[in-house]
Design brief:
A 4-stranded antiparallel beta sheet has the order 3-1-9-10, with helices on one face. The radius of gyration is 17 Å and the shape is globular. By secondary structure, it is α+β, with helices and mostly antiparallel strands. It is built from 4 helices and 10 strands, in the order E-H-E-E-H-E-E-E-H-E-H-E-E-E. A hairpin with a 4-residue loop joins strand 5 and strand 6. It has a single domain, classed as Cyclic phosphodiesterase (Cyclic Phosphodiesterase, Chain: A). Its EC number is 3.1.4.58. Belongs to the 2H phosphoesterase superfamily. ThpR family. GO terms for molecular function: 2',3'-cyclic-nucleotide 3'-phosphodiesterase activity; RNA 2',3'-cyclic 3'-phosphodiesterase activity. It catalyses: a 3'-end 2',3'-cyclophospho-ribonucleotide-RNA + H2O = a 3'-end 2'-phospho-ribonucleotide-RNA + H(+).
């Protein structure tokens, strides 16, 4: 059964730049640059019939392209955890997230119970990763600010768990409308 999620892709140069900030130490596994993305909604494992229904309902979303601004970093979890770069929750991003939630609910996907915390996962850290090094990285990059980019599509990804980590494959990309010139996002 496919394991699905919906996300915005990250420009390769930005992903590489963010990943270059990470410490290169045992126990810190960087996300592959091609897989750095902003998850809008995790769906989980579904059968092919439900995957087709999800695909069809996502195609009905009419949303504007999303300006994405990466700012700050943080960490989820203790003793290892996840190192991430934050994404400013601007109105077009929140509107797209809301539209996705409604569309997925219409396709029979259970609503998300956790609050939306937009971020880019940069690394997964083992419990034995050097705690002082992780704290230093967060402190050193807390004020990180990157130029904005415009996400012109969102993607339904299929994630396949492999021994070396997850492998993500685009099932379908959905275009977002260009913002009106008189009313930029």
């Amino acid at each position: 059964m496919p394991r699905l999620f919906v996300a915005l892709e990250t420009p390769p140069a930005l992903a590489a730049s963010l990943l270059a900030t990470l410490p290169r130490e045992r126990g810190i596994r960087a996300t592959p640059a091609a897989q750095v993305h902003l998850t809008l909604r995790f769906v989980g494992e579904v059968d092919e019939e439900k995957a087709a229904a999800i695909d069809a309902t996502l195609a009905t979303i009419a949303a504007v392209a999303v300006p994405v601004r990466v700012a700050g970093v943080g960490r989820f979890g203790r003793r290892g955890g996840i190192l991430w770069a934050g994404v400013v929750p601007a109105e077009p991003l929140l509107a797209l997230h809301g539209a996705l939630d409604l569309a997925l609910r219409d396709a029979g996907v259970e609503p998300e119970t956790r609050p939306f915390h937009p971020h880019l996962t940069l690394a997964r850290c083992a419990p034995h990763a050097a705690e002082p090094l992780l704290r230093e990285w967060v402190a050193a990059h807390r004020e990180l600010a990157c130029p904005s980019y415009l996400a012109r599509r969102f993607v339904l990804f299929e994630s396949r768990l492999q021994r070396q980590g997850a492998e993500h494959r685009c099932r379908r990309a959905f275009a977002l409308r260009e913002p009106e010139r008189d009313n930029p996002p």
